[in-house]
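Appendix C reproduces, verbatim, an entry submitted by the partner laboratory led by Prof. M.T., so that reviewers can inspect both the input and the predicted structure.
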Amino acid sequence: MRQGGERDGFERLDLISGYGIAFGPVYLNRSQRKLGFAVEPRHLNPFGVCHGGAMATFADLQIIAVNDGPRVKPGFSPTVSMSVDYLSPARLGDWVEAAVTLAKATRTLIFTQALITANGEPVARTTALYRNVGLDAQGAARMGRLVAHEGGPAGEGAQPTLAQIPRGKEATP
């Protein structure tokens, strides 16, 4: 292990959003499609083990390990759904690693799964579904705005879902 929790073959990712920064350092081994992080005090629950929310946050990053896969559009891919099965606790100082598999990518969806281990022992298994939109930073920022539906502007108080967001048909609130 190198300084700062980095392991051989892993490079530190630049997580630039607020919550990504708060989570702490995450590492990527692109050739093996693995992610990793070292459990720090910020990740612990009141019982002194890795909080399930911290593990779920880490699991949600699995798209990063496969974003160069076949049919996966580069850029931001928002999460549609994710499931995490907790198998065993990860403890302070443990090296947590997710071995990610790209199960399938279609024109609109990306299906992934991962086995998450702590020091080589399974602690969680996950499946995730992402929207295959491949937005750049500017496009991702627009995702939060009210957008027009195919038939015209969104109605008063309407909250469009990802499935309702037609590309390139923004409307201002």
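Residues 26 and 116 are 14 Å apart (CA to CA). Additional entries are available on request from the coordinating office.
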